[in-house]
Amino acid sequence: MFYLIKKKRVTILTCQGRKEMKHLNLYEENDFAEKAFKKLLVHDSPYFKILNFNFKAGQELPVHSHEIEGQLSLLILEGEGEFLGKDNAAIPAKTGDVVISEIAEPHGLRAKTDLRLLVTIAPPI
Amino acid sequence: MFYLIKKKRVTILTCQGRKEMKHLNLYEENDFAEKAFKKLLVHDSPYFKILNFNFKAGQELPVHSHEIEGQLSLLILEGEGEFLGKDNAAIPAKTGDVVISEIAEPHGLRAKTDLRLLVTIAPPI
Questions:
Q1: What number is the average pLDDT over the span A29-39?
Q2: Average per-residue pLDDT in chain B?
Q3: pLDDT for the residue B8
Q4: Hey, is B105 helix, strand or coil?
Q5: pLDDT by residue (tens digit) across B19-78?
Q6: For FRET with A80, which of A27, A92, B85, B120 sits at 20 to 30 Å CA-CA?
Q7: pLDDT on residue A21
Q8: Burial of A21 from C-beta contacts in 10 A (0-12 / 13-18 / 19+)
Q9: At CB < 8 Å, which residues of chain B contact A?
Q10: DSSP line for chain A
Q11: Taking CB atoms and an 8 Å cut-off, how many pairs form between chains A and B?
Q12: What is this model's ipTM?
């Protein structure tokens, strides 16, 4: 198993030469930008992909979908906004909210305050 | 696709009879207990399983492992404690920390303050 390591502060704990655990802090690894939301690839493996998106108030991940089988979870780590769906659906989103969606279903997010989102996709896209 | 819905406040958004998104709030759905940590099954599907564990200070998820292929993520939603591993390993854990582990690697958690943990397992155990 190989991990895709993109940040210098990620710690790989090894024992007897074997990779065991990857450890990082989302608040230290990713910040915000005025120009556009900031994306951090937290993990990518054959099992799942984990991404962290940080939005400044007003920034948006437009509604999109992929025609593949699988599901994703959207977790609001902090902040307020709206989950977006097809037909202009907009569902209030706040800290601690989780949405589970088929990967093939349209989904997106709009931030009303600075907002940290964690996305987990299985199997990985 | 069927979702396992265990809590009354979970919302299933449907369109033309099709289940699309599941929506719940972790802070509203799960609380703490003095007797033992509290476990909430957030989602279970062929793709992944998502669990929320809430620990009072001092409570612990003992080190364990399962001899199956796959990985899991441990995310500290809030609180401080220690990630536990084999050979009595204990790694400081704080809000925003993510650990990725093979399912087959020993893993656990000890809370030093009240702590909310999100566990995502792919494929589901």
A1: 98
A2: 88
A3: 42
A4: coil
A5: 557 999 999 999 999 999 999 999 999 999 999 999 999 999 999 999 999 999 999 999
A6: B120
A7: 77
A8: buried
A9: 1, 3, 13, 15, 20-28, 42-43, 45, 47-48, 50, 70-71, 73, 75, 77, 83, 85-87, 89, 91, 94-102, 105, 107, 118, 120, 122-123
A10: -------TT-EEEEETTEEEEEEEEHHHH----SSS-EEEEEEE-SS-EEEEEEE-TT-EEEEE--SSS-EEEEEEEE-EEEEE-GGG-EEEEETTEEEEEETTS-EEEEESSSEEEEEEEES--
A11: 136
A12: 0.86
DSSP 3-state of B69: coil
pLDDT in tens, A115-125: 999 999 999 98
CB contact under 8 A, B95 and A70: no
Please, how many CA atoms are within 13 Å of residue A122, restricted to the half-sphere of its CB?
Answer: 23
**Number of residues written out for chain A:** 125
Interface touch B122/A50, C-beta < 8 Å:
no
pLDDT value of position B3: 43
Average pLDDT over residues A95-121: 97
